[in-house]
Amino acid sequence: MSTRDNSGAPLLDVRDVNVVYRGSRWRSPSFHALHDVSMQIRAGETVGLVGESGSGKTTLGRALLGLAPISAGTVTFDGADITRANRRARRALSRDIQVVFQDPYSSLNPAMSVESILAEPLRAQGVPGAEASARIGQLLGQIGLEADAGRRYPREFSGGQRQRIAIARALALKPRLIVCDEPVSALDLSTQARILDLLIDIQEQTGVAYLFISHDLSVVRYICHRVAVMLKGRIVETGDGDTVTSRPRHAYTNRLLMASPIPDPARQAERRRQYAALSS
């Protein structure tokens, strides 16, 4: 793990954030997706946000990116309030806040070469052509792909390689925070490990911070410094990554732990029995 900056103000400060989706029809009930969610992320730190499907973890990530409406509360990035930043401000923020999505097969435009995919955010920020070309070569090296990979198309790569390309795209503008929304859940176990190691290496080299969204406690334990557990739109437990993912205090976190598979058949059978007892 990289060295974190534990001094001074956090890079990202989320305070009492609520997200309410209004009913699409007259008299349709509203849906309260997030309830008074608070968390902090410091420079160079990885904070895991874990919970089952529908818990609200992706909604929080979308709210931080300006893709979900914040009904109450505040989001502060590097001391500036970005809770309701307009389109121009969000465009400027894209230099500092980026995202890696879950599915490497759908997150890359199949009609664009890898070079064009990586050049797109650079062009949007007005980076000159020669500088952009040099940056693309640097990015391909950083993710472990050959320089000629830029001339190829996403369909010519494996799932793990595509996710590396998605990570390179997120890194193009040298952001300070990346929202990783289930970035390894669509990959096989050996590829997952390589992508996680890549993210850790990049953090050690650049000092970038991650909000790492996942449903898998074993993945979160591997990469995260701190962990927040979400249930029905609320944070129910936070703490050191090793502690929360191995000795949880909250019953819900314990159920998540018991639901995580382990390679030892005897221990897995015992874990299934414990999970059944917790769920009964």
TrEMBL record:
<keyword id="KW-0813">Transport</keyword>
<dbReference type="InterPro" id="IPR017871">
    <property type="entry name" value="ABC_transporter-like_CS"/>
</dbReference>
<keyword id="KW-0067">ATP-binding</keyword>
<comment type="similarity">
    <text>Belongs to the ABC transporter superfamily.</text>
</comment>
<dbReference type="InterPro" id="IPR027417">
    <property type="entry name" value="P-loop_NTPase"/>
</dbReference>
<dbReference type="InterPro" id="IPR003439">
    <property type="entry name" value="ABC_transporter-like_ATP-bd"/>
</dbReference>
<feature type="domain" description="ABC transporter">
    <location>
        <begin position="14"/>
        <end position="257"/>
    </location>
</feature>
<dbReference type="GO" id="GO:0016887">
    <property type="term" value="F:ATP hydrolysis activity"/>
</dbReference>
<protein>
    <submittedName>
        <fullName>Peptide/nickel transport system ATP-binding protein</fullName>
    </submittedName>
</protein>
<keyword id="KW-0547">Nucleotide-binding</keyword>
<dbReference type="GO" id="GO:0005524">
    <property type="term" value="F:ATP binding"/>
</dbReference>
<dbReference type="InterPro" id="IPR050319">
    <property type="entry name" value="ABC_transp_ATP-bind"/>
</dbReference>
<dbReference type="InterPro" id="IPR003593">
    <property type="entry name" value="AAA+_ATPase"/>
</dbReference>
<dbReference type="Pfam" id="PF00005">
    <property type="entry name" value="ABC_tran"/>
</dbReference>
<dbReference type="GO" id="GO:0055085">
    <property type="term" value="P:transmembrane transport"/>
</dbReference>
